[in-house]
Recover the amino acids of this structure.
């Protein structure tokens, strides 16, 4: 089995227990996660041979992050060690009308400080047929954007598929910066994921009017944006996107669109009681990639990816702890028994 | 006050805290429960003189199971001690579209290995006017089915009412096996509880088409099945059944039907936010039995049983920790104050 | 900045974790709260200079209550120390159709036993421009009602605004007792809060028919009652009231009315998934007071107060841990993102 | 089997977890205990038929206290229900040089407020051959002392053995008050337990010089005091006493003396690492009583009682959760394996 | 780097939190461990390439056990899947004079039920230079003893070193059974570990008089037994043994002896405050093996093994979470700073 | 009452629960502490008017740190807000022979990045009579050393006493750097605290040979070093120092020396079972300062300071949660009762 390599930052996630706020808590639940790490772990749990590339400090926090991923079956042998620290994000889950709030403390992390010449691409991409990263990695530093450039170039030269989750983070860069960087990467990419404001912020193509309570009715606008992506970058054969109506922290409807070589498919709509919204985009990416590698296309493909994504909404922690069988069970069965 | 005796297996229930999955948890909440044990404990809390019959290992796990029931007021003096182990079930609560998952580890338990001649029915049924068991006990082993045979025979000969919750478990036996065993027991039974697939699997009478998102609209089919039960077994004067629309792990509507000597009554419908689905059938059985012993019939009877059942959906642990006053309060009041 | 002084009892609140019932729990979460303490803490977090007046025992429980308030920024220098004990309330949160249940254990507390002559009003009300208390304080004892009488008299004489949350507690006194006491206090009051049965029980003016599942449709009756309050006590220039449709412990809609010098304003309606109902009236009072002091009137004023109130429903513990910025964010934005 | 009845107050015990102090904790571990309740529960776990007499409020706290004892096998059918509240004690465990600290909040409890005429002694003492209480019960109120007078009189008249643990509590009464009350009870007593300052405070006989770091070397003085007890009250055939060298919260040596009809026996000395000091006197009383009922005398008797007592020092919660087999194992084996 | 393969059963370990007893606990801490699994994990953390061989059920419990080991770096690719269940052991930690108590619930586990022909030795031992197992594996079933026979034969034929930790368990077999089985395995073994009663029970050579409070003074007797082992089995070039004075659950002294080709070495003595005694023998085995592979002999070798062993006594869970650097730091430094 | 101002960094402290290691934990206990913050909080709890000066980020972590100190009574009104982040330290408590391990993650914190011109000394030192800082603050950055220079100069010019805890941290700077900086500060200082390697590393005066298992026998060398400090800096009228024999993480003896204007006093020796070693130096500093302000000198002074210090060893979290009465109780009483 050939390998998928994902590249990005994994952080310590600190979350107050049971809906407490940061200012009142006396303990934090500790998890380790990050967009591309989540994708690697989910791929491994779905049955893929997945490796993760990052740089971790040589201390117990770095060890714990590595052990977590290795436990779920991720190949961690390509991870670099050293540098100053492990990044952190504080995750304060919202409830009802109180929105979830995240405090990032990731500046100066070992991965963010890594330099392009630390990455030996021929060795790191050996045996790899798919390379996956998100806009977060590109946003970390100009050095990291350079490293991605080198990696994408190597991939194109060696027939390795590149998957990009655009994953815009307004706390890390501006749309102008994001678009400038993305323009240098997109010509190498085959599969693109973009949701909500990602289209406009990272691709400069408006799909979403910003009203998250009625995303699903904007399906035509999303489709147009997806087609525009393929028009601009004919190398991108697949575009996937989640659409949501978010009524409160807990209560939302989710569907998804897939554009494959000009053909649009739409997933069913799931009505959801959300436990934890973090990582559902990563679960979508892993699900889409796994289903593609299993040979699915069109509606089954997008339904699989969406089922993986919404199952993540029921999981504590960044990583989608669901198996291929569980994703398929949800695809084949709308309701859910309570025993 | 005469006594109700329930007979069955009580297990250690291990549940990951706060919606964690088994593969990620570092601790389990420990409860002790099982269908007939739950019924006995609920009866005691509702005010009945209830005894429980099982066999428990002579170790601290067996002690803890016994102490739990005794604490809630169950007469535990008829419990046998000895044998190899206490059965376990791992309870992984689902959320939203992720279904609840149970791993049974009950093979080789002290109760499952018990032999018919260990049960001294004249002594065990002394002072008892009602004997309650479920299909789970019958499914445990041929020896246990024999023991139940002996008990039912003794009951019939001594005017002790027999109550059967059909409680089909597809992981324990096949419909063919269940029906064969039930046929030998049903002639001794006066009260039968059956829900969902129980009718078809244990009685061979189809009531439910398997679509749990729309059980309530199948009321006519349930009624027909209930009438057919009484037609076949005129000794069964009372049949009770729960009907549900289950939209997700948390979100469902519940109603219930009662057939008493040919007269059908229907309970009100409750809209519910389910905390824990386990044990609601047992709570229904205990509620029905207690209300019958209080002299209720018809609509009040089935409304009481259903109120007891849906209150269980708000409780952590197998046992329905609600009192007679609390069940009545729900019967008399639809809404619920949040202070 | 001049100061708001609130006066009342702060108690140790003991709550079983994660929806357990009192009879099954092996631990209690400990918080410190009480109507007027909650108001003071919320005011401090919203940016006001707020002081709290009570009497606390000279033991670690009294210390802990004081430290909690001081931590959130409340001026605790006017608190008296001594007396027998800290009052307690056991808070058993309901779920779905099981109602929340509270066991009070507050008799004989240091504050309830305090005598009028322990309160040196000129010193205690120095620098204060607003004095806030609720009907709970008045209900504690005839001595406490006398103390409030003295305080209100001093306020009126010195131009200090008096705010009264009528806050009827049927476990503490009867409507007749409440109305008799209130009649002596209301002539000194400028701002009155009353919800649900408060109008009838404490003011003798019927606003609400008792059906909490349909409070919002009774808006006309509430308006009439509010106008009647101003008619009887022209000194009361502002009346605020919350109206709710409560469908279950978790599920409800909330709106609010404001009558200011004869002009009625109505807030938007929030649909809510309630985490904890306690203290939402106190959060409303603090929000209303803060917004008034910021110069808001009419719809913005009542929308601010309601937003503060419903945000409290998402918080663990008695105190509304939301800032002015967070209240405003909810006012300006209906939905809520889950990341 | 005839029955032992113990009489006293059972309280909710609230303890901060893991050595936290009250002023910093955000939760309390909840147990239910009290001197005589602990004795009843330990007796039941050792195999005796033990009943407990108290008065509990008709609320979930009272229920929980009752369920706890019933779970461990105590006959709770003689418990009265009603009255204002359940008493509480806050237990802040010390460590090393920081002493353990207890805050009592027991005033006004249902039991403390109970009146002598609520106790129907012929019914309560039916089937009982031994009546056990401690000085704490006598100290609660003059009414309770009267009730004990009546009980002791009934016992003497009906051949029921009375056991008294003198158990002096300086926070409840003075030595003068204690001695005055004790003088009225001691003529009815057959077995007396007294430790440390109990001799002087409750009996007016000095045994201990107050230096708890060197109690064991004062053995001669303890023996003299024990003999003086028997000299003054020839009806007291048995006196038991624990002697300790307490070097820190964790580190101490324990031994014990027994005077039976003039013959002194001394137990071995145990070197201990104390987990929780509460309830070791109660465990001693239960151990002594059980061993006497088993027919032990002299050294085996006092060694059994002491082994029971020091095993309690390894247990969380007020009740000595050790069985007869475990006590005997310690008697017969000095060391302790760590696997 | 060549590989070490260890073979045995890994179980779910359930432990009440913070010194609670099983009969009182409401939760269990969950770990996964077992003698040979612990050795493999410790070897991996010390820097070896270690693989573990067992059979795990195809359910989430089996997954969790596998993920745990894989996380710590164990090669889990040779683990068989299938069979009925994961074995359990309940671990009730003692304190002071209360001994630790273990309830095994391992009968019928997937590994215990595995048959010799499920083990394809040429494949399983490929790339392996050391094979490690303990007497526990041999005791599981005659089938497992046969499997070990086959493995040992294959090892001898292919120059793979066999290491045996005799690890006698009186709850699994008798000395006679143990010795009969061991006689068939010992001729293939090169390294033997034996402690305490292991010598007599599994080898029929008395070393220890059974008094665990004074094991260290029996050093001469241990030495004689170790020499006798080498005399009987000249193929055994190395024998290692721990000697202890155990004064209580927490308080003990540990030393160790090593006999290598006739030369005896003795380790320093550590005075210890034990947190958890489980797995210290496994930590010793892993330490000894790793140090041997690093080329250590004599005193440094046995000091390394003992340091690894006693560090385990400070760790929660079965697995010795200490690195090579930490073991060496203890070897080189007696004391321990508290910051 | 005049005020003490302490200045330094407060961090989030993350500690795995119950002796877990960082690599295995799934949660961290959260406290907020740092040398000078601990001193301020302890002073406040001892009864002083204490203020703390630092810079905290404008986010919930900064709020929580501030609220914690304010809760314990520290004047937090002089704290600056802004900058990038709150520093963190991970605290992995050791046990027995496993040493405690700390991972610092404090680079780039708001306080470490603060510039000298942000500190308006006339305003910050208004009403202050004592200024306290430790070597940690000086080590943070050259800018911070400059700020301290300015503060010390201002203090000297305005008669404000300067207290310095030398507090050497080898992870922050070298002895050469420390000594160079200290030389510029010491001429302004009146009271110096130095323990263990502090003398040599920060003052260039050898007192301690590095063997922490036998610090107390080096009393003569410590005395000589203390006298040398006063010889070099006659402005330093008081030098305090702790001496320890540390046998393991839990087990140690502590004493202390005080040199006041040439007169040496020695404290009693405490034998301790340490729960948590962090912050005992800060507790010593606060104790010394409070006792000096109470007018104590000589032996009572150093005994008070040491009693405060060793009481901290029994407390969870960085802050010494003991009152003046509790410190005095330990001074007056060697042993400790376990009830």
């Amino acid at each position: 089995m050939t390998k998928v390599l994902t590249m990005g930052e994994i952080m310590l996630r600190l979350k107050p227990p049971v809906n407490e706020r940061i200012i009142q808590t006396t303990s934090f639940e500790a998890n380790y996660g990050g967009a591309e790490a989540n994708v690697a772990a989910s791929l491994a749990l779905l049955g893929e041979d997945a490796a993760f590339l990052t740089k971790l400090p040589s201390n117990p926090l770095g060890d714990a992050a590595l052990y977590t991923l290795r436990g779920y079956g991720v190949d961690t042998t390509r991870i670099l060690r050293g540098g100053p620290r492990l990044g952190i994000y504080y995750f304060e889950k919202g409830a009802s009308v109180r929105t979830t709030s995240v405090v990032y403390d990731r500046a100066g992390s070992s991965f963010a400080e890594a330099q392009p010449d630390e990455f030996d691409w021929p060795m790191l991409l050996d045996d790899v047929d798919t390379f996956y990263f998100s806009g977060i990695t590109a946003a970390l530093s100009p050095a990291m954007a350079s490293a991605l450039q080198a990696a994408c170039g190597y991939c194109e030269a060696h027939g390795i598929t590149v998957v990009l989750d655009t994953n815009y983070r307004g706390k890390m860069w501006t749309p102008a910066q994001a678009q400038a960087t993305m323009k240098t990467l997109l010509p190498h990419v085959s599969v693109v994921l973009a949701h909500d404001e990602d289209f406009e912020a990272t691709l400069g193509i408006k799909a979403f009017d910003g009203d998250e309570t009625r995303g699903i009715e904007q399906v035509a606008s999303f489709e147009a944006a997806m087609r525009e992506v393929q028009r601009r970058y004919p190398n991108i054969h697949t575009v996937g996107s989640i659409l949501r109506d978010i009524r409160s922290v807990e209560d939302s409807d989710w569907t998804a669109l897939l554009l494959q070589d000009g053909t649009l498919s739409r997933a069913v709509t799931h009505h959801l009681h959300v436990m934890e919204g973090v990582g559902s985009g990563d679960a979508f990416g892993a699900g889409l990639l796994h289903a593609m590698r299993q040979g699915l296309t069109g509606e089954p493909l997008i339904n699989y990816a969406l089922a993986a994504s919404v199952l993540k909404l029921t999981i504590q922690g960044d990583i989608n702890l669901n198996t291929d069988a569980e994703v398929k069970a949800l695809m084949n069965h709308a309701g859910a028994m309570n025993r």
